[in-house]
Amino acid sequence: MILSKITGTGSFIPSIKKENNDFLDTHFLNEDGSGFSLENDVIIEKFKNITGIAERRYAKSEYKTSDIAFFAAEKAIKDAAINAEELDYIILAHNFGDVKQGAIQGDMLPSLATRVKFRLGIENPNCVAYDILFGCPGWVEGVIQAQAFIKAGIAKKCLVIGAETLSRVVDKFDRDSMIYSDGAGACIVEETEDQASGIMSHATQTFAKDEAYFLHFGKSFNKQEDENVRYIKMYGRKIYEFAITHVPAAMKTALDKSGIDIKEVKKIFIHQANEKMDEAIVKRFYRLFKAPVPEGVMPMTIHELGNSSVATVPTLLDLVLKGNVANQEVNKGDVVILASVGAGMNINAIVYRF
User: Fold this and answer.
1) Which residue from 12, 99, 186, 210 puts its CA 20 to 30 A from 164's CA?
2) R_g (Cα) of the chain, nearest Å
3) Phi/psi at 306 (nearest 5 deg)?
4) Closest CA to 200 of 257, 158, 248
């Protein structure tokens, strides 16, 4: 049986730090354009209690999404100790393309994956570069696709990247703007003969009936703003209820497929969307197996890094593997789950043994 293995990881954490107190003078509005009766310090404290976010990172104005994707990719290639010319695929997950600071539209021509291939200086025309638009689960889905190519015998080495500059597509009058951040994470997925490690199983779902527009582009809450300019918008309560219901089930499907016992799962690398939501997802997942939640099973970076969409899972994985998250580590033989949920609404999960 052909298995796929992650042989290298890399991430790029932007240098601009924006703390919650930096929003104290922001003029937040309701969807109908009305103001809040609460002061900003109360709004921000409630926000932190729910999301866990105390600060987030923004990219420098001179860096676009493809730039920070390239930075993460370089690190993953170096970590895997491979020649970039040997790559069969470059799969880049994002949602808004390259958005220049102050611009009102994304740039996706050529694809961001092509731009990364160009920056890497890869001359091999058989290295195929393409983008995925799959919401926040895009990077996880890219890893699943890389595995499929390897199992089909049409690839041996793939570079999978998740990168986003969400700070440039947020409505500053919307409280939800405090959730989003910028970042990039990447990994190398290779064919392996080692039957004891690698991707054991996966599950992916798209819910597009009532859920299709839970995340969408919408007008600013400030009615004085240009109505032709769109920003990322979400129905937070609906997403929360959807996620805690369906993500645990998808994770269980993936674990059941693998044949691995729940007691063997050492870590769950889940999309850093909302601390309370992630805790509820993991709690419900273990409840499906009538098992207690092990202490320290869910590493978190959302407190300092915010929600960088497709970049959260690969960044979290890279930081833990490099020993950069306190009291968190992964050892050889450990079983972990990578899981995400986002626009689509899409859900996916991978069971992986190191």
Assistant:
1) 210
2) 20
3) 70, -165
4) 257
Residues 169 and 231: their CA atoms lie apart, in Å, by 5
Distances (CA, A) of 243 to 2, 164, 246, 263, 269: 32, 21, 5, 23, 15
Q: Which two tokens stand for residue 7?
A: 């042989």
Angular region, 271: left φ>0, alpha ψ -120 to 50, beta rest? beta
Q: Report the C-alpha gap between 233 and 162 in whole angstroms.
A: 20
> Could you please report the per-residue DSSP string of 200-217?
EEEEEEE--STTTTSEEE
pLDDT tens per residue, range 59-101: 999 999 999 999 999 999 999 999 999 999 999 999 999 999 8
The pTM assigned to this predicted structure is: 0.95
Residue-averaged pLDDT of the chain: 95
d(CA 13, CA 256) in angstroms, rounded, equals 34
- Tokens found for residue 69: 């994707």
- What does the alpha-carbon distance between residue 113 and residue 128 come to, in Å, rounded to a whole number? 9
